[in-house]
Write a structure and sequence with these properties.
Number of strands: 5
Distance between the termini: 30 Å
Helix content: 40-55%
Order of helices and strands: EHEHHEHEHHE
CATH superfamily: HUPs
Radius of gyration: 16 Å
Structural class: alpha/beta
Largest sheet: 5 strands, parallel
Strand order of the largest sheet: 3-2-1-4-5
Strand content: 15-25%
Shape: elongated
């Protein structure tokens, strides 16, 4: 059985990508796996921003770290729930995975584990200046993934 992977994260969700992944799985009679990645880099960026503006000290408290991670997990469960409902409406076999860590590394782990044939990823729109100087993690995933990666830019 083929497998379609929809990759969501704390900074990347898209209704268009969700619809596309569900339709792709339905048409291919494939299983839909939704991966929600809690990006540790993004969490560190939040702490850095709060520190820069003087909202928190140099070292965030354990309680603050736990509160932010809890919020990210909650968002993930809500997003995966929306996808699950959509998959059920279309009678598509569904599985969900939540993980924390590096976007590319975690995505490739799940691609390998489920033998994914097509992955659907969402890329944030970036300025031309940033595009020129750095690659996005989704671009890196496209290069390294052992399967086809469809990219939605939102």
């Amino acid at each position: 059985m083929s497998c379609v992977l929809l990759i969501l994260s704390t900074s990347r969700t898209s209704q268009n990508a969700i619809e596309y992944a569900v339709d792709l799985a339905k048409k291919g009679k494939a299983k839909l796996v939704v991966l929600y990645i809690i990006e540790t880099e993004l969490t560190n960026e939040v702490f850095d921003k709060f520190t820069d503006i003087g909202f928190i000290g140099d070292k965030p408290s354990t309680q603050l770290t736990e509160a932010i991670m809890k919020e990210y997990r909650q968002r993930g469960y809500e997003e995966m729930g929306k996808v699950q409902i959509r998959a059920m409406e279309e009678n598509v076999d569904f599985d969900a995975v939540t993980t924390q860590g590096d976007f590319v590394e975690k995505a490739i782990e799940v691609i390998d584990r489920y033998k994914v044939t097509t992955a659907v990823a969402i890329k944030r729109k970036r300025s031309a200046f940033l595009k020129y100087f750095s690659k996005s993690v989704v671009d890196e995933l496209v290069e390294k993934a052992p399967c086809k990666v469809e990219v939605f830019e939102e």
